[in-house]
Design a protein that fits this description.
With 92 residues, the chain is mainly α. It is 48% helix and 0% strand. It has one domain: 434 Repressor (Amino-terminal Domain) (Orthogonal Bundle).
């Protein structure tokens, strides 16, 4: 049985990723994307992807709110970029 589809993070947030989301899950995804953008800094997406061991299109999809990154992807991004990306309650 296929898993039910769910709306994308960007579809739950007006002005992704610049405006806070009312939906708690979308807000975590939005803040993770903001943290990811900051961690990438001046690097190209391809350079960041190479250091993380993920495809550059995966990073782009997370940044654009077109995907819900799984735990393995988040772990690879955090390891490859040498920073925590998961938003903490104190980050609010």
């Amino acid at each position: 049985m296929p898993r039910p589809t769910r709306t994308l993070p960007r579809d739950r947030v007006a002005d992704w990723p610049d405006r806070e989301a009312d939906d708690p899950s979308a807000e975590v995804a939005r803040r993770l994307a903001i943290n990811l953008r900051a961690a990438i800094g001046d690097r190209t997406l391809r350079a960041a992807a190479e250091s993380c061991g993920v495809n550059h299109t995966t990073i782009l999809a997370v940044l654009q709110g077109r995907s819900w990154p799984d735990l393995e992807t988040i772990a690879k991004l955090e390891r490859g970029l040498a920073t925590d990306l998961w938003p903490r309650p104190a980050d609010s």
